[in-house]
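hiii so um. not sure if this is the right channel but i have a protein structure encoded as tokens and i wanna go backwards to a sequence. like what aa goes where. can anyone help
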């Protein structure tokens, strides 16, 4: 049986399961559509939250970022895990006690202002749409490989699948679909990792195998990996980061963005009681930890396996001949996510740190063939040649290497890992189903957050308070369909890898929604004016900073400055700026509130009652 047939069987079986669940749990009311009727068991909700949480960024892209970036990319792990703890301890129980369907609902009532609710809707839609771009990008990568189509076609297929079960089932359908998706994705992630860990270290627990002895060389696996990558001019895998400020801000941005993500917060409204919200958070952390404990090992082992594939006899021996490349590399080339450029014409695959020479030469060829600044591109090639010649005392130029010839998209590393390690075909089919489950589960949750913000918080709250349940459901489904179309279009030309796009979304959520939620729960003094000014300031400053480097509204070739460290303000990356935006939000909210009148007494009592363990008062504890 061919690998393609096996992939179809695994992916098809999982999709049939998801569709069956969506039809069985079809939402018939707005309460079922928004919060699954409010009767989900805490353990099931914990699983669904885990699937909602472990998106394409976690399943597909995070290990790829760790594979490429080593210790420096561990900020993704620290930020996302720490942020979930913040969410579980500081926000989820209190928001559940308040008893509203959505985040804008809470902000509108707490800050006694339709204007505050509208700003929250805008923040939610922008953050969630950016996040969905990352999910659709990841889903497109998975579909393109395992259905053996190009990346754009894969993205279109993903959009159709998400449209079917998210639009049909609402939160009720999504919740039970995500329980199934969690089971699929965690099995799919851990089984290949166990096989690879056994193969490389003899240890069946990947998280421990990463710190074990590399069987073939007899030295620690991470030491072996450091040797391999430094011999090829790359920074050591375990090397410290040069810009500590950026690392701290990035981690903080991911943490507060996590705690401000509306699609995860909504999950805590689906359980019967406040106590269940706490238990859901605890169970979700357990389920999330199973994958996050494994991810660093998957990244490290994937990087080592890739390097050993290109240099089977070591970095000082001739590289792999292009004609002898393994079948997995040929298949990924068809998707466009692996590209080979024989720059020196020797027919071998040189993959190494070339000081940007290969990329500069490709840019020059593009400028010459398609139009562009040829003079600037030529100057960039000459500058890169000088740096290239200085690498490891001319080792690479002496070998006749004219630049890095293999471009591997980070997002493929987890999906390609079983093939690189020559694991059985059924394992490859399993990880295909898992990667798609991860991308689609989070995409569905985000789309629900967007649709509920538009139908419930925008239309019903502001434009048509008398809209019927049926009408509200129709608006929700239409808005979800429009969001899918927008996310698919932007996913074709994303502003980065899946994990990077998601990081941008976290920065936007952290700069705008997180401070408003925190101040709304823990400060009685913050009023409607402070909340509105703070959210707008945090959102606008963060968006402008991102667009200046990533392109306005993520449209290609519209950036004002190159997205490189020398052009960043004080060395702060666009992906790290969310923490700065949040600080601006907090400061302005407190300043404006202190200069204007205090919130009404009943609002201050409401804040007190939300934090009170007994006597909920105006808050709803059921």
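sure thing!! here u go:
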């Amino acid at each position: 049986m061919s690998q393609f047939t096996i992939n179809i069987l695994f992916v098809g079986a999982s999709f049939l399961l998801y569709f069956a669940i969506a039809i069985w749990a079809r939402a018939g009311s707005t309460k079922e559509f928004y919060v699954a009727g409010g009767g989900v068991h805490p353990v099931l909700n914990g699983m669904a939250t885990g699937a909602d949480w472990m998106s394409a960024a976690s399943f597909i892209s995070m290990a790829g970022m760790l594979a490429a970036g080593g210790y420096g990319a561990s900020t993704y792990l620290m930020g996302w895990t720490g942020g979930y703890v913040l969410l579980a301890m500081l926000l989820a129980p209190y928001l559940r006690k308040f008893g509203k369907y959505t985040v804008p609902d809470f902000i509108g009532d707490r800050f006694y202002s339709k204007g505050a609710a509208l700003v929250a809707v805008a923040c939610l839609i922008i953050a969630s749409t950016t996040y969905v771009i990352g999910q659709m990008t990841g889903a497109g990568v998975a579909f393109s490989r395992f259905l053996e189509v190009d990346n754009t076609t894969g993205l279109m297929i993903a959009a159709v699948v998400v449209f079917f079960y998210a639009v049909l089932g609402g939160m009720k359908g999504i919740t039970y679909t995500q329980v199934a998706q969690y089971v699929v994705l965690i099995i799919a992630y851990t089984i290949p990792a166990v096989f690879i860990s056994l193969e490389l270290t003899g240890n069946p627990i990947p998280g421990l195998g990463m710190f074990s002895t590399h069987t073939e060389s007899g030295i620690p696996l991470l030491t072996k990996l450091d040797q391999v990558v430094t011999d090829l001019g790359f920074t050591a895998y375990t090397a410290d980061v040069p810009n500590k400020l950026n690392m701290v801000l990035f981690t903080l941005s991911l943490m507060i963005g996590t705690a401000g993500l509306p699609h995860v917060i909504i999950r805590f409204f689906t359980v019967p009681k406040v106590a269940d919200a706490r238990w859901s958070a605890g169970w979700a952390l357990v389920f999330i930890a199973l994958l996050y404990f494994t991810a660093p090992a998957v990244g490290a082992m994937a990087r080592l396996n890739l390097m050993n594939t290109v240099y089977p006899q070591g970095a000082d021996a001739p590289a792999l001949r292009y004609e002898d490349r393994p079948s997995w590399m040929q298949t990924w080339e068809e998707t466009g996510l692996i590209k080979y450029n024989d720059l020196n014409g020797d027919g071998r695959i040189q993959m190494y740190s070339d000081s940007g020479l290969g990329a500069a030469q490709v840019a020059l060829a593009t400028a010459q063939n398609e139009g562009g600044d040829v003079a600037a591109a030529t100057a960039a090639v000459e500058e890169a040649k000088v740096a290239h010649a200085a690498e490891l005392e001319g080792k690479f130029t002496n070998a006749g290497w004219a630049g890095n010839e293999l471009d591997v998209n980070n997002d493929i590393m987890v999906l390609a890992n079983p093939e690189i390690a020559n694991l059985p075909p059924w394992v490859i089919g399993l990880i295909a189903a898992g990667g798609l489950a991860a991308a689609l589960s989070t995409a569905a949750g985000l789309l629900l957050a967007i649709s509920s913000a538009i139908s419930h918080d925008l239309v019903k709250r502001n434009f048509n308070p008398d809209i019927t349940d049926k009408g509200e459901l129709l608006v929700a489904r239409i808005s979800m369909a429009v969001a899918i179309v927008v996310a698919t279009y932007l996913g074709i030309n994303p502003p980065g890898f899946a994990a990077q796009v998601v990081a941008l979304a976290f920065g936007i959520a952290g700069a705008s929604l997180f401070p408003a939620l925190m101040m709304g729960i823990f400060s009685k003094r913050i009023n409607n004016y402070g909340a509105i000014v703070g959210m707008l300031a945090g959102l606008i400053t963060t968006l402008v900073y991102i667009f200046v480097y990533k392109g306005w509204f993520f449209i290609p070739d519209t950036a004002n400055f190159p997205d490189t460290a020398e052009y960043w303000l004080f060395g702060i990356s666009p992906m790290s700026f969310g923490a700065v935006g949040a600080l601006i939000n907090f400061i302005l909210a407190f300043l404006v509130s202190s200069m204007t009148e205090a919130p009404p007494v009943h609002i201050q009592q409401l804040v007190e009652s939300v934090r009170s363990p007994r006597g909920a008062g105006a808050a709803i504890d059921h």
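oh and The CA atoms of residues 70 and 185 lie 24 Å apart.
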